[in-house]
TrEMBL record:
Taxonomic classification: Bacteria, Pseudomonadati, Pseudomonadota, Alphaproteobacteria, Sphingomonadales
EC number annotated for this UniProt entry: 2.1.3.2
Gene behind this protein: pyrB
Domain Aspartate/ornithine carbamoyltransferase Asp/Orn-binding, chain residue ranges per copy: 152-298
Reactions accelerated catalytically: carbamoyl phosphate + L-aspartate = N-carbamoyl-L-aspartate + phosphate + H(+)
Protein name in UniProt: Aspartate carbamoyltransferase
Binding annotation for L-aspartate: 83, 166, 220
Annotated carbamoyl phosphate binding sites: 55-56, 105, 133, 136, 261-262
Length: 311
């Protein structure tokens, strides 16, 4: 089976194909109350979430249901994982229920790939540790494409806790593949070593990075992944790396503000910027998330449905 484990495993044409397919689902989702296409009728999709989520879990659930699939959610906190069941045993249990696709979020990098090697259906990565969050990068690319015409040639600034961010990794791969100039900004302690090898230009001074930016993507501090590491104080972080009106004015006059969520208002982003009617694309990102996940579920289940096409 073909899986969606990360952007690193996708060719440029494959990314563009998913984005094109997602446009169709944006149109359906905006078509009124009857926004249903039951092409996945009879299929069972399991969302197995070993970490908390609001956007990714709900949008995968909505995406599967809009396509007519039977969707069930497994929250690890309420599962037998709490009784000591291993990841592999949990995966084999889900597999035995004859799922047609499994969507997984896990705190460990590589856990989703491990599961994909043990089950008999497509596996979609909904975020694994600090490794990848491919559908987030795809929905971000769709948002930028719709707002700016194209990703190619755009200067995208990604600022925040890059060290622990799977969103940043997937976005760097996706944006570079589509021809954007990517600048990354973080305090030295939260900047991954060797990030330039991925084609991103690294900055520690946010103001310098913002000069000429078309898109400013803010990331939260992932305190839950900072065991014993340097943890900046929220006030100090906002002072040095928070996106406020003064800083946004350094970017291009029509620069787009993005945030994958969940936001910590007043830590990495000012409330009036997050809520800015023209500049903020944050709620649009969420909307694009449903469409992109519909596209991914449709594409990856084609083999099971004996439908011709990619995957
Ligand atoms: N952007 C994102 O992954 O949000 P959730 O953690 O709420 O799914």
């Amino acid at each position: 089976h073909r899986h969606l484990l990360g952007i690193a495993g996708l060719q440029k044409w494959e990314i563009l194909y998913i984005l094109k397919e997602a446009e169709h689902w944006v149109a359906l989702n905006r078509s009124g109350p009857a926004k249903h296409d039951d092409r996945l009728s009879g299929l069972t999709i399991i969302n197995a979430f070993f970490e908390n989520s609001t956007r990714t879990l709900l949008s995968f659930e909505i995406a599967g249901k809009r396509l007519g699939a039977d969707v069930v959610n497994m929250h690890a906190a309420q599962s037998s994982v709490k009784k000591g069941e291993t990841l592999i045993d949990t995966a084999m249990t889900l597999n035995a229920m004859r799922a047609d696709a499994i969507v997984i979020r896990h705190a460990s990098s590589g856990a989703v790939q491990l599961i994909s090697s043990k089950v008999d259906c497509p596996v979609l990565n909904a975020g694994d540790g600090s490794h990848e969050h491919p559908t987030q990068a795809l929905l971000d690319a769709l948002t930028i494409t719709r707002r700016r015409g194209s990703v190619e040639g755009q200067t995208v600034v990604i600022c925040g806790d890059l060290l622990h961010s799977r969103v940043a990794r997937s976005n760097i791969f996706c944006l570079k593949s589509l021809g954007a100039d990517v600048r990354v900004v973080a305090p030295p302690a939260l900047m991954p070593h060797g990030i330039e090898a991925f084609g991103a230009e690294s900055y520690t001074d946010f103001d310098s990075a913002l000069n000429g930016a078309d898109v400013v993507m803010m990331l939260r501090l992932q305190n839950e992944r900072m065991q014993g590491d340097f943890i900046p104080s929220p006030r100090e972080f906002y002072h040095l790396y928070g996106l406020d009106e003064r800083r946004l004015a350094i970017a291009k006059p029509d620069a787009l503000v993005m945030h994958p969520g969940p936001m910590n208002r007043g830590v990495e982003i000012a409330s009036n910027i997050a809520d800015h009617v023209e500049r903020s694309a944050i709620t649009e990102q969420v909307e694009m998330g449903v469409a992109v996940r519909m596209a991914c579920l449709d594409i990856l289940t084609r083999k099971a449905r004996c439908v011709e096409g990619w995957a």
